[in-house]
Amino acid sequence: MPTPNKAASVAELKDAFQSSNAAVLTEYRGLTVAQLKTLRRALGENAQYAVVKNTLTKIAANEAGITALDDHFAGPTAVAFVTGDPVESAKALRDFAKENPNLIIKAGVLDGKALSADDIKKLADLESREVLLSKLAGAFKGKQSQAASLFQALPSKFVRTAEALRVKLAEQGGAE
User: Fold this and answer.
1) If pLDDT is split at 50, 70 and 90, which confidence band does 117 have?
2) Around Cβ 129, how many Cβ atoms within 10 Å?
3) Cα–Cα distance between 117 and 167 in angstroms, integer?
4) pTM
5) Alpha-carbon distance 114 to 84, whole Å?
6) How far is CA 153 from CA 31, 109, 143, 157, in A?
7) Measured between alpha carbons, how far is 5 from 145 in angstroms, rounded to an integer?
8) pLDDT for the residue numbered 81
């Protein structure tokens, strides 16, 4: 029979899984408390990094409908619950792991879909949401400029053709 503390921990973890856009499992073996504090700071406000108990986290994930992570709850595990942009958090984890090889990215979940460690690294290679949106806006603006030029070209071409025809008729009429 579960103790009230364990039941509360499972409920809290279940809420964290349900309220986050993504969750990334990591192994933190060999990291100091100061390094973990630096990692939490690097993740910023859009992610919460928590050292968790495997059994309780597995139960909470299953209750939240996430079963893809079951095989990865082994060894010292911590979870980054991402509530903001998952790309920024993936970049922060990847960059921290480069500087601190003791941090190992195991797996993750993004919008209910399982991600491998390689998928998370690919996600980190994406540009941020703001950059992608600005590129999209630039592309739309460019297409609008091209359309405006096209629409403006038709009347001006007609005017030039009419003027050339008028000049030609004037030359023919003036020569006779």
Assistant:
1) confident
2) 13
3) 72
4) 0.68
5) 18
6) 65, 51, 15, 6
7) 62
8) 92
